[in-house]
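not sure who needs this but someone in the group chat was asking about Chitin-binding type-1 domain-containing protein from Syncephalis pseudoplumigaleata so here u go. i didnt clean anything up, its just raw.
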Amino acid sequence: MHSQIIASAALLLLASALITPADANCGELGRKCDKFSPCCSGGYCDSKLRFCAVNCDPENSYSAKSCFPRPGCVNFETNFGDAKKMTTLENYDGNYQKYELYSDFQPNNAHINGNGR
């Protein structure tokens, strides 16, 4: 009996450890994200950039301002030798004027060396 209680407690502890802020559903039955996981993406809430930048759903997020603004389409020419104009999704801060491109590949194998290659 005592071992069953310990096993049940361990299972409960393990299950609670696996629950992350991204486990909260949004958009379901009108539910919105809370202020600690403000961005809704793919039906889940989280505060990670991946949720707030790409495919963020402002209607089901904590507020319409939770999602990063979507940059409009503009004509531009870029020099791929300028590493400062490219970043990874994890480092993207929502400033579309600072970065022209970001890589959202997982794993991220993109890089620019000193010669622009």
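also Residues 7-21 have pLDDT under 50 and may be disordered. if thats useful
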